[in-house]
Amino acid sequence: MGHFNSSLLSPIGHHRTNHIPKSKGKRSKKRKRAEGKAEAASDSHSKEAPYLGEPLPPNEPLPPPPELLSNLTIGLNSTTLHLEALSLQSLPKAYPASLQPSNTLAPPSKPTPHFAAIFVPRDEQPSLLHAHLPTLTVTSSLANPHLPQTRLVGLPKGAESRMAMALGLPRVGFVGLMENAPHASALVDFVREHVPVVKAAWLDEVRAGVYLPVNITARSTSAPVKSKKPNEKGEEIKKGKST
Asked: Which residue has the higher pLDDT, 9 or 95?
């Protein structure tokens, strides 16, 4: 699955490598700023007239990125925000606004696309980073009950490096694939056939609306009673006082 996914993402990496300049970090920006100031100072001392010839030809427009890029979320933050927006849409229409927390996301202006699958590499990532994804995967799928539930796909070790190379990025942690993404139907069908859906039993019980009484299990056990050991220090003190 990792090789299949990499071949699907490779056009995005080719576009990024050939048409988007790579970032060289803040140090490079500071160095260029210093070089620009030095060139401006040298130009101010020069007595040559400015160039007044024909204008340079405009730069050729960049080719548009692959259509698949607009159907992906790359990274944990963008994927989580997309899931949260879907989960907000899944709230019942009669949900009281007064019960919503103050930090709830604002409703989006247009429906958020459904996730077909979310890919999570397992290359030495702490589980704390993606512990919230199973619950959000279930709640976000409720926004589109007519579509298959979002699959949470764990990729084997080594998949992260292949995905990063395919996307032209130094590192890739999480990738979300939206429903009806171009050229991804074969991958989505394969995932839905071999990856089971995420289940949240406690969420199903809440949605059922049935009162569940407290179930307290009491067990009677027996153990031998241990005899108390005499306090040797206390006995010595009493003997000293009596003498």
From this structure: 9
